[in-house]
Amino acid sequence: MEEQIITFENADFARELFGPNNAHLASVAKITGVCLDSRGCELSIMGQDAAMVALVSRFFAQAYALIRAGHQLFNRDIEQGLRILLKDPGASLEAYYRQASFSVSPRKTVCPKTVTQREYIHALREVDLTLGIGPAGTGKTYLAVAIAVSFFLQKKVKRLILTRPAVEAGEKLGFLPGDLVEKVNPYLRPLYDALHDMFEPSRVQEMITAGTIEIAPLAFMRGRTLNNAFIILDEAQNTSPEQMKMFLTRLGYGSRAVVTGDVTQIDLPAHMPSGLVQAMEVLADVPGVSMIHFTEDDVIRHPLVGRIVKAYEQHRQNMQRSSLKKAHDTY
User: Of 238, 217, 236, 219, which is closest to residue 169 (Cα–Cα)?
Assistant: First the structure.
């Protein structure tokens, strides 16, 4: 057995690092297979794999430094930080958690939590068209809105345009009160929520009234050329191929577009193909287009969300295998 012992200087920071009832230690042990034992400010790391013991030791040393610097680490941060080092043993958590932070507005600072989120933010800043594809809770929409707001405040664009297709997820729009805009407002709520996290609600309303922020259903984009704007198409898995092509060809001079969606949550009628799925194929080799794929490891909501996403993905794969087997047996 290989063993390393780390002694931390501050007992309060050490307790925060270990987590309530050593919950953080339990998470690390489960992911890596090492044995962890804490006594006061000491942490013992034991395991058969010397390289893994050394990696876990580096992880806790870096995590402790982050806590000392004032960075609060929740269990999801512990798990994500460990996965960063497992993917790149030479990585610096300081770089990922602090240097990668950026101020969106006086009200909000954003810090990417995973490697994929960092890649996504880089693409949003550098590429004219970015496709963010992955499950719920990975920050696709929130980070896109954050970069859009930062671009606007830096005067890189003159307005923000946020849009979603008006597709029902088991509900009927016709039974909702009001005109079309009022009917689709519930479907645009995640975009409002992200904006309200970065601006005072009164400021958001002022910008909407002034026309510098436009939140509208996708149907309102037809026939327009969108110049000097940051445009976000959310829930793009529910667009038809025709709607997706229409949206992508709205891009004007000085503009940047982001398309986000989850191809496992398509609410279109069974006979209708998804515009996002087609766009992923059509645009795969087009210069100036970046595609970022998130997985359940990038989910930063409640830890249960990641497990739910993984369970549904496993179920989908099982159903596909069952269908293929059935078709093969029939043949």
Answer: 238
